[in-house]
Each structure stands twice: as C-alpha cells, then as structure tokens.
Write a structure and sequence with these properties.
Blueprint: H1 2-13, E1 20-22, E2 28-30, H2 34-43, H3 48-53, H4 55-67, H5 71-84, H6 89-104, H7 116-125, H8 135-155, H9 157-165
Antiparallel strand pairs: 1-2
C-alpha cells in the first residue's frame, strides 16, 4: 500500500521546483502553482496532445506505462522528438543508428510494436538519415499509445486520484 502511494505521488513530486511537496500527513499538497497544476491535470483528458505538451503529463504517463511494461513506446516517441532537433549531420546519423538499434530493429532491447513494413521503411531511411527518417514509425507508435495506452491511463487509479486532488 505504501509503495503504491509512493508511486502515485512520485508522478507529481519528482520536480520540487514546481511547488509540490509532501505534508506531514503523507498526502500530496500543491504549492503556489495549485491552480495551474490542477487545470493542467484536468486538461490531460481533453486530448492526447494536451498530455504530450505537458512535462508533468509526460512524466505521469511514463510512470503509468512503466506499470504496464510498455514505456518503450513513449521513450521512442520522445527520442524521435529529440532527434528532430539535431542539426549536425554527423550527430544525426549516429543518433539515428542508436535509436534504430534500441527501439526499431527486430529483437531490439526496447523494441516498439510496429509492423514489418514500417520497420523496413525506417531501416532504408537510415542510409540517408534526415530528421524525418523515423516519422512513420513514430506516427505508428503515437497512434498505438493514443488509441490503447492513453484511454487506460485516463481510467487508471493514479490519474483518477490526481483529478480528485485537482
């Protein structure tokens, strides 16, 4: 029970600079950003995009995905977002290979669930790595999270607890 509570509270507590702290009762207390944080938590249910735009939303969703052993989907999506910001051609190629080896290739350590065709298209895109070489695989992974994991997140006890506090 205590471990479960710690996991749920850890979602919002990982960044103390955002005004969150644990009170003596052990319950989450929102500091000066209470209204902003409350509104943000409630906005996550409006759309998957709202969740992904929020740093604390991504953290909460990531924590939830860990409980389902499927955080590699979000980690891949985030790695692709970071990859798109890379400007150096040399770094672009090395990052592309690292992302492919970690998430995309068959039997990758953190393999994402994409079809064979998308995997092959992505493999071919690596030969001339551009910031768009993972677009199709990233889109498929995003759709999978939006249609599958996101609705379960909204129904999860941890998100329900956050909305009650909001």
């Amino acid at each position: 029970r205590a471990k479960d509570l710690k996991t749920r509270l850890g979602i919002l507590l990982h960044k103390p600079e955002e005004g969150h702290r644990i009170g003596t009762s052990g319950k989450l207390q929102l500091g000066s950003r209470r209204r902003d944080s409350s509104r943000e938590v409630l906005e996550w249910r409006e759309s998957f995009d709202q969740l992904l735009k929020s740093k604390s939303g991504v953290t909460a969703f990531h924590t939830f995905l860990k409980t389902e052993f499927s955080e590699e989907n979000l980690d891949f999506w985030l790695a692709c977002e970071d990859f798109k910001k890379t400007r150096s051609k040399t770094k672009l190629a090395s990052k592309a290979n690292r992302i492919f080896e970690e998430f995309v290739q068959s039997e990758a350590p953190r393999e994402v669930n994409i079809d064979h065709e998308t995997r092959e298209i992505t493999r071919k895109n690596l030969s001339g790595a551009t910031s768009a070489c993972f677009n199709e695989a990233q889109a498929k992974t995003r759709t999978l999270m939006e249609k599958d994991s996101y609705p379960r997140f909204l129904k999860s006890a941890s998100y329900q607890d956050m909305t009650k506090q909001a």
